[in-house]
Amino acid sequence: LEQAGYDVKVVDCTFMDQNKYDVERVKDAVLGLSPDAVGLSALTWTIPSAYQLAEAIKEDSPDTPIILGGPHVSALPRRTLRECGAIDAAILGEGEKTFPDFLGRLFSKGMGLEMNALNGVAFRHGGKTEGDTEPVYVEDLDALPSPARHLFPLNEYVKWSKNFQARQTPVASMITSRGCPHRCTFCTRVNNGVRHRTRSPENVVREMAELKEMDFNEIQIVDDNFTHDRERVHEICTLIRKEGLDLTFQLANGMRVDHVTQE
Predict the structure, then answer these.
(1) Is 169 helix (H, G, I), strand (E, B) or coil?
(2) Cα–Cα distance measured from residue 237 to residue 219, given in angstroms and rounded to the nearest whole number
(3) Given CB 3.0 to 4.6 Å as the disulfide criterion, which of 119, 120, 170, 186 pairs with 158?
(4) How far apart are CA 123 and CA 113, in angstroms?
(5) pTM of the entire predicted model
């Protein structure tokens, strides 16, 4: 979004009262930024809270467009828009390109039927759900910029991560691939219909170096299957040594046992 020229602000609820989700407090924080549009993200287990927040925002600011993204709405776009009338549109799949395209059309032409020209966007129009309900996925992960970590309170994350069970602290997280080549019946990835895509070793290690400059000492790799391509893993480790990065990493989502060797 920043690359597309938008002024982005984030309301990070991580360090609000973790014992109670206060919808009014989050709503006030969002509207206190005077946004032209509000983007929310939700998993299935957080969708009730997302609905509550959307409804609270819409009640106080009825003309502010509310857009939802995340795995839940990507799987169930029509149902989600039907269940929560406060949500105006949904970005389906991976939104790095779709969301800026959507906002460009929203701010120039409004929420009209012209939105049908966009892939991976479901929206509300005339009491009906319109748009393309097939999720969109990014093929070239190297073309994406590093996450906009400057929008988040990194000092708080540094302090918080010192409580992790890690070989070194502070701890940061990153992804080096998206999707998974396997189709395990118990996993939601089977519903995505998207192939496994990887970042190049050079691209991965460049972000690791950025994290080291931010004083992180350990990285949690949250890929679904980091060790799928063992040759790529070797290349990443070789580059870490070549760059002299004093880093450790752990695989937060584990790994498939048939992709592990003695080495």
Answers:
(1) coil
(2) 13
(3) 170
(4) 9
(5) 0.91
